[in-house]
Amino acid sequence: MAFRVDIGSLRSLRTIPTGIRVDAYITRPGVFPYRQADGSIRLELRDDVEVFDSESLSSFELLPVTDDHPPVALDASNATTYARGAVGEAVRRDGGMVAAPLTIYDASLITKMKAGKSQTSCGYTCDINPVPGTHPVYGKYHVSQTNIRGNHLAIVDAGRMGPAVHARMDAVDAAFMITATEDKKMEELQKQLAAALREAAEQRARADMAEIRVVEANTRVDVAEALALGEKARADAADKIRTDTANGFAAAVSARVSLVSAAASVLRTDKAVDDVSALSDRAIKIAMIKRIDNIDVPEGRSDDFVDALYMSASTRAQAAASSLSALRGDLNDRRDTSGLDPEVAAMRAMMAHNAALSRTAQGA
Fold first, then answer.
1. Would residue 211 count as lying in a domain?
2. Distance between CA 73 and CA 58 in Å, rounded?
3. 169 and 296 in one domain?
4. Is residue 200 in a domain?
5. Suppose 19 and one of 82, 105, 293, 302 were both cysteines; which one would form an S-S bond, judging by CB atoms 3.0 to 4.6 Å apart?
6. pLDDT tens, residue by residue, 130-167
7. How far apart are CA 71 and CA 62, in angstroms?
């Protein structure tokens, strides 16, 4: 496990009776260079997943705030010796940064902060994963940090570290592993690194702008092609509508007339239906199903379901009508031996036939 310290920045100060409250940026993700004991530079990745991990964020809540870094990591045995305030509980992601509210109640530190001591330096521990790689956003790295856990938050002078040995300085976008005796070298290195980072950011911005222009040009071409295709599609649709209307209108009218005519005949004694022609096709079919098969179609059933029941009922009605017609013809030739009027006998035969059909349908 390694110990790290990162530089952040303070935002607006607000005076309260017990001291001051201030929002602060305390760390951020990225690839940061570290100077090793042998003078070499090692690039370490702090990935978004690790920096903004819920356990990592919560580990910074209620940490002691110190005036510069303490010479040792803080724990229950020494925290009150170095604490000059506390981190609030609302440690959170703020865009690409980790933000947190601070309360400072030490008068000496408050005076220094108002005089310009304006950076926060976040002390934490982490595990080092030695596997190198290339991050899609932050670029190449030699190792990566995992399991980031907060230890304390120091208020430090801009561009300087406290007395901590092996502490990290995070100047603008960079960070270095340093010792307490290397401060002056670090200041110059910070300036050089900041200039390099600004140039890299400008180059990246220029490249991004060039990409944006290319994308915009391609988008304009795509839009023009889409508009042309849209016009053709609209013209084709209009032609199809005209053709379908010409071919289908007569058929639709004929089908409607047939449906209304059949329904008017079947539903002429149905008191629930005043005017068949005023009903929709679906309503007519539902009324016919009820009249012929005495089946109530549940609300919400699909048109296909209604059509299937209607076709079945219509088929049975036609069959019953054919049977009735045949029976009437037969009775016209001969009177029923029972002495019944032919019309009465035919109606009874039709009712028996419909009852048999209904029983067969319900059994299915």
1. no
2. 18
3. no
4. no
5. 105
6. 999 999 999 999 999 999 999 999 999 864 333 332 23
7. 20
167-171 and 83-87 as β-strands: parallel, antiparallel, unpaired? Answer: unpaired
Tokens, residue 77:
């045995």
- Decide which of 132, 156, 178 is a domain's last residue: 178
For 282-302, the pLDDT digits (tens) are: 988 888 888 788 888 888 889
DSSP string for 32-58: EEEE-TTS-EEEEEE-HHHHT-HHHHH
170 plus 285 within the same structural domain: no
Q: What type of residue sits at position 207? A: A
Range of the domain at 290: 276-363
Residue 272 CA to residue 229 CA, distance in Å, equals 52
Q: Of 123, 157, 178, at which residue does a domain stop?
A: 178
pTM of the model: 0.44
Q: How many CB atoms lie within 10 A of CB 292?
A: 23
pLDDT in tens, 204-228: 888 888 888 888 888 888 888 888 8
**Domain presence at residue 225:** no
Residues 169 and 284 in one domain: no
Determine the 3-state secondary structure of 273 from DSSP.
Answer: coil
> Which tokens belong to 118?
């304006």
Name the residue with tokens 């030695």: 130
Q: Where are the alpha helices (DSSP H) in the chain?
A: 48-51, 54-58, 79-82, 107-114, 183-266, 281-293, 303-333, 342-363
Has residue 195 been placed in a domain?
Answer: no
Q: Is the Cα torsion angle 211, 216, 218, 219 positive or negative in sign? A: positive
Q: How many domains does the chain have?
A: 2
